[in-house]
């Protein structure tokens, strides 16, 4: 396979409702797509992070520079750019997992399309459809939250995740439990909003039988998460703190988490996500596929990952309609609480030319 062309398309899609977390409020999904053309096939990917480095250290403008100036030249220098050769070629560049994932996924898409193989087959996925959970942002009031949960459950979502922060934690969890009962699969995500000094307060969540509490403490502090886990019966799940399989191995060894949220972008791509899945499965640690409010271009490959056998908890891969009035691809539609795993080669989906043209705000040639 020979790299012939690479371009980056900035896109902006309005969200149907603002999404508020402990780190900020999003009203639109602003990101870029990578489009690469090889002599054999074309490939697409979506950068997962936001314009500002609030969820993670990476951000759109920085990633564009990293890809253009440091990653792509290393890939273009390969005699035969294959997915397997990519990670070693990019390893000299420290960090920047989300930028690396974008480039690797676009190339993987092209490589798989050239072989006529769906990503799900490449990864070893075992399900044709995956159960969908939904992540619900912080609301202005409890009645507003209850309305949202009610609506999502009526649509068929099989698991509810509540975003929490100091001042919005025990009360919303209690309100949802009281209204919807013990049996509702329920979990929370703090996005690093607490410190170990809050351990006793977080312990108040134990009585609600949550599936997990996601990233309660500061990013990368495995030691503090292990100390917190010792004081909670609710399983700690790590998101922000897991950047690769090495981190996952350390976190499991330290008992810093008992569940892992795998976001392929956050760990540098699908092959590394698969390694984390395998490592966790070998330790009996359940994993699930997270999300970053992706358009269809980022959602499609995540559904393939979510269909791996070790993804035993429902993920955050919700239907397109939970985020956008109109997606950039054919929308993913919830049926019976599940989303279909794409079956076409590569990521299994393409941007719709008309939607792509309307959502694109800038287009930049990266190579040659
Ligand atoms: O922490 O999982 C997170 C969205 C953006 C950034 C971080 C997170 C999230 C979500 C939403 O929780 C998941 C989704 O619906 O895509
Ligand atoms: Mg999270």
TrEMBL record:
PANTHER family: O-SUCCINYLBENZOATE SYNTHASE, O-SUCCINYLBENZOATE SYNTHASE-RELATED. GO terms for molecular function: O-succinylbenzoate synthase activity. The gene is menC. The lineage of its organism: Bacteria, Bacillati, Actinomycetota, Actinomycetes, Kitasatosporales. Transmembrane segments: none annotated. Residues 143-235 form the Mandelate racemase/muconate lactonizing enzyme C-terminal domain. This is o-succinylbenzoate synthase. It is an enzyme of class 4 (lyase). Keywords: Lyase, Magnesium, Metal-binding. Its cofactor is a divalent metal cation. The keyword Magnesium applies. Its EC number is 4.2.1.113. Gene3D superfamilies: Enolase-like C-terminal domain, Enolase-like, N-terminal domain. Coiled coil: none annotated.
